[in-house]
């Protein structure tokens, strides 16, 4: 129904406007008496065999929503109702910021992909905290970044502000230094500044009554040597794991009209490279840390491939937009079929 009826209508309109329109529709749908139960029954797969324990947390299933969709923690309850095992909010920054100028979100229909140059548009960390205070049982990841106007030499402080504000309201953290849409952000992936950033957050984390898992989200465009550096950094800083991968700046093999737009590419073209990075990290590290696999998952088999390559959990975003919530159910059913 989604692909044959709903998606063709939504895809006739500007993607960013559709994004916010969809938020309103889902919010209202879950308020209608009885409809929330119907939606949950249609998409949720409740089976104990899907329960997954990773970095000390218990996930009801291994299929999560990647950061970028629910930036301001406005829809996590409804998205949980559609069958996700966990929701990652953000990327949030200390202060609110509008992001880059519009138009900044582009569908590449022929490639089943999206290019975005949103630029960490969000309402600021305190706005998310206010909404997360109402959370009862949704497993939440907090994806944190720096404001655009903050120079890299001061970036650590921005991450600390977000970390402190979210600490009591999220189950794990993700340090985002890999978005291509904030100027010079990816320079923080270099070994020295990244080690300093993660060590600083870990010191703060270890000073808490109960530490939270901290993960690093990396770009798919890293070289093998840079990936080996990532393994060294994870080992040295003792963070909980890695999310592989963020969007890519590559445009190789694209067919769509919008292929040369600036920004990060997500969706089907990223599938193979993301899986390669997962396999490399898993094999070269001797499976030393958990990996959340994300990038180009549009079928259940895509998710299985990432799990088989070494991922402990998977996340979807662009596949969710192209395939609808039925994709979550199909992935979970496929995982059960392999049990």
UniProtKB/TrEMBL annotation:
Note accompanying the cofactor annotation: Binds 1 FMN per subunit.
Gene Ontology terms for molecular function: dihydroorotate dehydrogenase (quinone) activity
Active-site residues (renumbered): 179
CDD domains according to UniProt: DHOD_2_like
Coiled coil: none
SUPFAM superfamilies assigned: FMN-linked oxidoreductases
Known pathway: Pyrimidine metabolism; UMP biosynthesis via de novo pathway; orotate from (S)-dihydroorotate (quinone route): step 1/1
Main EC class the enzyme belongs to: oxidoreductase
Binding, substrate: 71, 116-120, 176, 181, 246-247
Reaction equation(s) it catalyzes: (S)-dihydroorotate + a quinone = orotate + a quinol
Keyword ATP-binding: no
One Pfam family hit: DHO_dh
Domain Dihydroorotate dehydrogenase catalytic, chain residue ranges per copy: 50-335
Predominant location category: membrane
PROSITE patterns registered for this protein in UniProt: DHODEHASE_2
EC number: 1.3.5.2
Top-level taxon of the source organism: Bacteria
Protein purpose: Catalyzes the conversion of dihydroorotate to orotate with quinone as electron acceptor.
Family: Belongs to the dihydroorotate dehydrogenase family. Type 2 subfamily.
Protein name: Dihydroorotate dehydrogenase (quinone)
Organism in which the protein naturally occurs: Gillisia lutea
